[in-house]
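sanity check this fold:
=====
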Amino acid sequence: MATGRARGLQAAVASAIFLGLAPIFGKQAILLGFSPLAVVTLRTTLAAMLLFIIMAIFKRKFFFIYPVGLWGCFLAGFTNGLGSILYYTALSRLDASIGQLIYSFYPLFLAFWLLLDRNPISRLTLVRLGLSIPGIILLLSTGTESIDWIGAFLMSGSAVLYAFHLIINQRVLYEVPAPTVTFYTLLAMGVTVSVVYGLFDRSLPTPSTPWWPILGMALITFLSRVTLFLGVKFLGGLQTAILGLGELFVTLISAQIWLGDRFTVWQWVGAAFLGISLFLVAFDKFGPEKRRKSGLLAWLNPPFIQPGDIRW
């Protein structure tokens, strides 16, 4: 169990680093001329294609998944696909750092979804969540600079949908390897955003526009998704989400260096609150997701399968 916990912690931290870089590349792509829908469609489909090629060559057994788990991944991918559209639309209206800060409320929404799904939450986890909320509020203190409230509303909606897709995959990951969940979730995301892109956008920048931010985002999406679901598998969705707040530090530092964003003293105080919340993970007690017969997502429980019954 200790090994699983260590693997989950390493995966969650790695996911936070990758996810922290995503809004920087996304904002750069939008500034270079890609529309928000083009950004989310290209990065998702390229990441899904990359994972498909790797699995087809090296790990074909990971394509196996039980039917209810497949529908769960499709639902998670559809949900997160819509959330991604909201995210990058909001990012076109907000600074990368501010957008990521608003998005970081998703652990609060995740706790709400977990309560609906009848998952227990430890007291220390609630304390850590309580520390993170004022930290995020202080980080949102932008002084005299006004916030685009439409963009803030869209980003909040994205956070709600992202949290919901995490608890769906948390259920599926009890039975299914992380690469399998990653692939089918990315596949559903790709189909969702591609349909919306085909119906409402279809725009592409000029041939001379650099594509390196899109390619960078595809690689980051691929790596972040595999590590994200590996963390969820061993730690559970809420623990991974709170650890994932570390992506804020990556975004803040990258935005200051790359995009020229600057923060006030109170915003750095908020960052300190988040740092304390992340530090307390060493004292929190938690285990991997367990099979539960009740709750909002009980329908995702698979029939019992003996390991020997699976034929690759």
Summary: Residues 2-287 form one domain. DSSP finds twelve helices and no strands in the chain.
